[in-house]
């Protein structure tokens, strides 16, 4: 053990350890500072008393998605398939922009603590109560464990490359740090720490990309552009794969088919189609609708345009410096960490290690706090102890956090490839997205619709897993998309075979939320002013997609040497953004 401890401290310099120590102390200080405020009530602990400003909640969203696993997955995908593979998460541009202009308003109006609480606002009776409890348990445990498992697994890879630790010790360290901080501070501390963690993480990724491009094997940006031709022979530098289908693959197994699924299906079919999890938690924590909208917009700009490209540059640089992944034992995802280990000197290496710590902490603390909110608000308070004191509920919330932390550590041992876990998790909830969207816009959707969508998705996915194991073949995306039509057909049939929700329930929901869409029978009996019009919101959505999509690709074109095309696309992005700004300014002035 003494040798292990000595080896641990020898891997980083004194300056590196000073940087790491400073970061940990600042995080601990914020956690302690907000302990008292977080302990006031469940609202303060889980939704910050609904007082978060747009810049804080938006940055907190970005920091949460800026996990330790993300640069590793991006690196692995680029090294094996090319840049286009990132459409697995780029496709969410369409849904995230829709969330900005539509769902951010609706969720803030709902004034719920968790998204599951909305179920008993939108639906009534025992089916609604069952659905709320089941979804709270499923998403806070099994679903959440997989997410936290891959985040911890990614951090374990960082520890192993940096210090030579076995995974067990690395996981123990990770979950201990996450639990202590999250238990103390609640969402106030999580959000504020996210704010400074995001800028640490962003700075670190930019520095790594800069140093990698400036390394002797690349020779600066001009050398990087020249050497890209050498790596394009086995990966694609284009944003989309070739539409040609290799004879050895067939269309259903081709990269082009996968790309089509990414852009046409995934963004509307998954469980987060109307926000999902911690996104909803942040939107419900906003000061008002305006802050919810602006915060989500700030997240979308950061998520797609600002933070992504340093990862791409580092991944491409890793291919030039290390054409194969022997340095990481064949683990393509770990090559991002190899760059840090081999290229950075004292000070910078400590900063990049802190970058991973910050990314890890921002994500895992959010997942723990969000998961505990489900167990506490939607199960314990709803079904077990309805009239407890606020201090009692806070204590139970912290115990829930402890349980989630331990179980997340267990799941981390079983996740080897993080990118594959991403796709598998999407498939577990594929098919329920459409019903989650339509419950806001169509009065006929009822609790049985959601139950049927979720049950058919889980059952179909379970059968696919058994089938592929029995056939001894890998579970691929072409198998997983079968879940979507089965689920949609199931919930549509169930919707028309069951009664609609009572007019009392629908009227209550309609008056509070003021939704757009197909609410004819309900709208006729309620004189509710809905502004802006749905056509106006759809126009904002189209302009927003153009702004983000052209901005993201335009920045990439510039960085990969296509200067003229990049500048034109960025100009289109800026122009679209300006139109949106003027339209929103007019809307908010009218509503004052």
Give short descriptive properties of this protein.
mainly alpha; 592 residues; globular; Sodium/glucose cotransporter
What does it look like?
- The protein has 592 residues and is mostly helical.
- It has three domains: 1-269 and 289-414, Sodium/glucose cotransporter; 430-523, no CATH class; 531-592.
- 75% of the residues lie in helices and 0% in strands.
- The chain is built from 28 helices and no strands.
- Helix 5 packs across helix 18 (348-384) and helix 14 (277-284) packs across helix 15 (289-306).
- The radius of gyration is 24 Å and the shape is globular.
Topology, element by element:
Elements: H1 2-10, H2 14-33, H3 35-38, H4 42-47, H5 54-65, H6 69-80, H7 87-90, H8 93-110, H9 119-122, H10 125-163, H11 167-213, H12 220-231, H13 255-269, H14 277-284, H15 289-306, H16 308-321, H17 335-343, H18 348-384, H19 390-412, H20 418-429, H21 433-441, H22 447-471, H23 477-480, H24 483-497, H25 503-513, H26 520-523, H27 534-559, H28 563-591
Helix pairs in contact: 2-11, 2-18, 5-11, 5-14, 5-15, 5-18, 6-16, 8-15, 8-27, 10-11, 10-18, 10-19, 10-20, 11-16, 11-18, 11-19, 12-16, 14-15, 15-27, 18-19, 22-24, 27-28
């Amino acid at each position: 053990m003494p040798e292990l401890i000595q080896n641990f401290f020898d891997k980083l310099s004194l300056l590196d350890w000073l940087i790491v120590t400073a970061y940990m102390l600042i995080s601990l200080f914020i956690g302690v500072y907000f302990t008292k405020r977080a302990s006031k009530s469940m609202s303060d602990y889980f939704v910050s008393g609904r007082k978060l400003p747009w810049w804080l909640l938006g940055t907190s969203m970005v920091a949460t998605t800026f996990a330790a696993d993300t640069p590793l997955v991006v690196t692995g995908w680029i090294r094996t398939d090319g840049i286009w593979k990132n459409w697995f998460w780029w496709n969410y541009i369409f849904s995230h922009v829709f969330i900005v202009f539509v769902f951010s308003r609706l969720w803030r109006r709902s004034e719920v603590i968790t998204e599951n609480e909305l179920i008993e606002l939108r639906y009534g009776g025992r089916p609604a109560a069952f659905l709320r409890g089941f979804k709270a348990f499923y998403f806070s445990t099994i679903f959440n464990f997989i997410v936290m498992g891959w985040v911890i697994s990614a951090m374990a890879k960082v520890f192993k490359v940096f210090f030579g630790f076995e995974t067990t010790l690395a996981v123990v360290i990770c979950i201990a740090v996450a639990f202590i901080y999250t238990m103390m501070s609640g969402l106030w501390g999580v959000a504020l720490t996210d704010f400074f963690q995001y800028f640490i993480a962003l700075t670190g990724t930019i520095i790594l990309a800069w140093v990698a491009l400036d390394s002797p094997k690349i020779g600066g940006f001009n050398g990087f552009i020249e050497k890209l031709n050498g790596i394009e022979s086995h990966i694609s530098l284009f944003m989309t794969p070739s539409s040609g289908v290799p004879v050895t693959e067939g269309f259903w197994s081709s990269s082009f088919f996968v790309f089509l699924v990414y852009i046409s299906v995934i963004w509307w079919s998954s469980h987060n189609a109307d926000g999902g999890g911690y996104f909803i938690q942040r939107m419900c924590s906003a000061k008002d609708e305006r802050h919810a909208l602006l915060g989500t917009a700030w997240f979308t700009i950061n998520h797609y345009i600002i933070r992504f490209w340093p990862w791409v540059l580092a991944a491409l640089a890793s291919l030039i410096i290390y054409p194969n992944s022997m340095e990481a034992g064949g683990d393509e995802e770990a090559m991002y960490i190899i760059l840090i280990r081999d290229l950075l000197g004292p000070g910078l290496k400590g900063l990049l290690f802190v970058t991973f710590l910050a990314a890890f902490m921002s994500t895992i603390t959010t997942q723990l706090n969000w998961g505990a909110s489900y167990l506490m608000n939607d199960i314990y308070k709803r079904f077990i102890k309805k009239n407890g004191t606020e201090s009692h509920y806070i204590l139970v919330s912290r115990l829930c956090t402890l349980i989630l932390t331990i179980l997340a550590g267990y799941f981390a041992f079983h996740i080897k490839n993080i990118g594959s876990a991403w796709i598998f998790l999407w498939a577990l909830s594929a098919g329920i997205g459409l019903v989650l969207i339509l419950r806001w816009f169509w009065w006929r959707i009822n609790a049985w619709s959601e139950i049927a969508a979720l049950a058919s998705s889980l059952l179909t996915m379970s059968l696919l897993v058994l089938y592929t194991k029995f056939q001894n073949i890998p579970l691929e995306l072409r198998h997983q998309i079968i879940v979507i039509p089965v689920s949609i057909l199931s919930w549509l049939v169930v919707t028309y075979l069951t009664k609609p929700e009572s007019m009392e329930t629908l009227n209550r929901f309609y008056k509070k939320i003021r939704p757009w869409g197909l609410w004819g029978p309900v709208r006729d009996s309620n004189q509710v002013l809905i502004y802006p019009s749905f056509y106006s919101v759809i126009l904002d959505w189209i302009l927003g997609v153009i702004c983000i999509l052209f901005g993201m690709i335009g920045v990439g074109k510039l960085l990969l040497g296509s200067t003229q095309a990049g500048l034109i696309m960025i100009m289109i992005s800026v122009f679209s953004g300006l139109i949106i700004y003027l339209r929103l300014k007019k809307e908010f002035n009218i509503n004052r």
